[in-house]
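Kindly review these tokens for lecture notes.

. . .
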Amino acid sequence: MANFAKLDFATLDITRKNYLTWVLDTKIHLEAWNFGDTIKEENSSSSQDWAKAMIFIRRRLDEGLKSEIASQMKLCGNTIVEEDMLEKTFSTFHVSNVLLQQWYRAQGFTKYNQLISVFLVVEENNEFLMKNHQSRPTGSAPFQEVNDVSLEVNATSFGGDNHK
């Protein structure tokens, strides 16, 4: 376990922007140390192996996430299930986004982390689209085509239609 604990990669950021790479790194490291099955449901791993895997994972979480995850596990003494978290997320959509809410519901997500992963990808795509829009807002003059420019240059250098 000593060498296992020393393996290092980025912790899961509190914003979860690095979630997909963090999950991949975590799975790879757990598999490399034969702890990959410990985090799967209904596994036959020993409780000691499970504890080692959990220690490894917890060391790679942002401190803010550790307390957030613990507080989400229980709410007023009740265990929160995936369905509750999904419903809470859908119910927080703004009124103007009812169609989006219905679309996400229709996708049939059963795991909260799947929905969050989709939200993160959508958010990144939206940021990319906004950056593109800000660099070339709607209604701005189109870029001049490269072929048009080269055609004009060739026409003037050969004297229009008078070339032989």
Q: What stands out?
A: The beta strands are 74-75, 78-79. Helices lie at 2-6, 19-32, 47-58, 63-73, 82-91, 98-106, 112-135, 146-157.
